[in-house]
């Protein structure tokens, strides 16, 4: 990560959690190549319903964000410098 990006991250991490969440959502949205279509929105809504049903039925087990983050970074081959 470039020094300016590290500085920006450090500043962002000092924001209140709601502001960090809004910033993260805006950054993720900025990665989209175009406007989502009704078809894409409907597909995501269905995926969300299915996943919630799996959690509610006990078919899948949730894990804490810290564990999910660790696994994601490990799978991507990225060293987690926050732990």
Task: Summarize, please.
The protein is mostly helical and 83 residues long. It folds into two domains: 1-33; 35-83, no CATH class. The chain is built from four helices and no strands.
Q: What does the overall shape look like?
A: extended
Determine the structural class based on helices, strands and strand pairing. Answer: mainly alpha
Helical proportion, percent range: 55-70%
Q: Quick one: biggest sheet?
A: none
Number of domains: 2
* Strand fraction: under 5%
N→C terminal distance: 17 Å
* Unreliable spans: none
Annotation field: number of helices: 4
Mean pLDDT: 88
Please tell me how large the radius of gyration is. 17 Å
DSSP strand tally: 0
One letter per element, helices H and strands E, the order comes to HHHH
Protein model, in words:
The chain is mainly alpha-helical and 83 residues long. It has 2 domains: 1-33; 35-83, no CATH class. The protein is built from 4 helices and no strands. It has helices at residues 3-13, 17-30, 38-57, 65-76.
Keywords:
single chain, 83 residues, mainly alpha, 2 domains
List the helices and strands and how they pair.
Layout: H1 3-13, H2 17-30, H3 38-57, H4 65-76
């Amino acid at each position: 990560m470039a020094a300016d990006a590290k500085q920006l991250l450090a500043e962002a991490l000092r924001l209140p959690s709601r502001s960090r969440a809004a910033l993260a959502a805006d950054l993720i949205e900025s990665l989209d190549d175009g406007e989502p279509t009704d078809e894409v929105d409907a597909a995501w809504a269905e995926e969300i319903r299915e996943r919630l049903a799996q959690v509610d039925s006990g078919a899948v087990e949730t894990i804490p964000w810290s564990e999910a983050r660790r696994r994601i970074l490990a799978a991507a081959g990225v060293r987690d410098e926050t732990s």
